[in-house]
Design goal:
With 365 residues, this protein is of the alpha/beta class. 45% of the residues lie in helices and 17% in strands. It is globular and about 60 Å long. The structure holds beta-D-glucopyranose (BGC).
């Protein structure tokens, strides 16, 4: 007994000492090499990114600090300033608002820091050096293709939802989805149930950013499940019975898709629904297993983290990072490294998410 206690006390002291050392930085004096700033802790998506970063840090000799902006661009700016003061050389940043983040990255740039936009592009500034991202247009196209593959046609009701207009990805997702859905809307197989702006543009194969803005303005969830739920309720209250029955729903991500699915499931005039998502949130994996959400687009965060960290290390070691393309951010072309995505539904959830070791199957029912 006593011996065990002694050993665990020693372990505890060692662990505390370890934490202290980590907090001070591997090179002492609180210096940090790479700063990571993530948008919010309120969504599983970003909590998972943090966790995957922490796992990746075991393999690096560099000091990395991760901060969260809690949806606030002011907090984000503060985080970046904190990291600047700690001497970072590279900033990896995913903004709550792509335009508003310009001030924060411009401050970093002034100090000679290399800026990597992570998953979400920072827009309308020249202070972004690199962008690591998933193929977000492909995400939207995959969601739409899933709906088309499961459609019954004959003017079947289609409910559209989008992400936050402050997130450039919301446009990329919608652009990808529209490309696939538009021909089916134009030929009458699908009928838009909840957006007069989209209905008015149904014959246009390609939309301008301004046209997409008008549609997203009507169908945005702001990435907020409460807003998604309220909108879905409003839409179903307004919908006549011919816009119910078997319906298709473009759910922009898992967090909002679950909220929307719950509303549609509760409406007795909705006979069946197909709803999309993305992120492979654990709660949505559960929904898919239970038949409450139809699909998700799996974006392997481990790959994104690896790409971001490899880029950062190349920069720290004075090498030129390899990129695979570029994205225009409204001001400049930002060199980008892009990663593919995988469609997951009941038929392959086991293979893609459990057998691959992404999640532990025993955590699910
Ligand atoms: C990300 C999605 C995420 C959404 C809401 C997007 O920029 O690409 O993975 O679900 O933001 O946080």
């Amino acid at each position: 007994m006593h011996k065990g206690f002694k050993i665990s006390a020693i372990l505890l002291v060692a662990a505390l000492f370890g934490t202290l050392l980590a907090a001070c930085g591997k090179n002492g004096g609180g210096k940090v090499d790479v700063g990571v700033v993530l948008p919010t802790k309120d969504e599983q998506r970003w909590v998972q990114d943090e966790q995957r970063f922490r796992e990746a840090l075991d393999d690096t000799k560099y000091n990395v600090e991760i901060l969260f902006s809690q949806g606030s661009s002011a907090k984000e700016k503060e985080n970046v300033e904190t990291l600047i003061n700690k001497g970072i050389k590279v900033l990896i940043i995913c903004p709550p608002d792509g335009d508003a983040a310009a001030a924060a990255v411009e401050a970093a740039k002034k100090e000679g820091i290399t800026v990597i936009a992570y998953d979400r592009l920072i827009t309308n500034t020249d202070a972004v050096d690199y962008y690591v991202t998933f193929d977000s247009v492909a995400v939207g196209a995959a969601q739409a293709q899933y709906l088309v593959d499961h459609m019954k046609g004959g003017g079947q009701p289609l409910y559209l939802y989008a992400g936050a207009a402050s997130d450039n990805n919301a446009f990329l997702f919608f652009e990808g989805a529209w490309k696939v859905l538009q021909p089916k809307i134009a030929d009458g197989s699908l009928k838009i149930a909840n957006s007069s702006e989209a209905e008015a543009l149904k014959d246009k194969a390609e939309l301008t950013r301004e046209e997409m803005s008008r549609i997203i303005g009507q169908i945005t969830t702001n990435w907020d499940p409460n807003e998604a739920k309220n909108k879905a309720q409003t839409h179903l209250t307004a919908a006549s019975d011919d816009l119910k029955g078997d319906v298709l729903i473009l759910g922009p991500n898992d967090h909002t898709a679950r909220a929307i699915a719950d509303v549609f499931a509760a409406d007795s005039a909705v006979t069946s629904y197909v709803v999309t998502g993305q992120d492979a949130d654990k709660a949505s994996v559960e929904y898919i297993l239970d038949g409450k959400q139809s699909m998700t687009v799996f974006k392997d965060v481990r790959t994104l983290v690896k790409d971001a960290m490899n880029l950062a290390v190349d920069i720290l070691e004075g090498k030129t990072p390899t990129t695979t393309g570029s994205y225009h951010n409204g001001k400049i072309d930002v060199k980008a490294k892009q990663t593919d995505v995988i469609v997951v539904d009941q038929s392959n959830v086991k293979k893609e998410l459990f057998d691959s070791g992404y999640y532990d199957e025993s955590e699910f029912n």
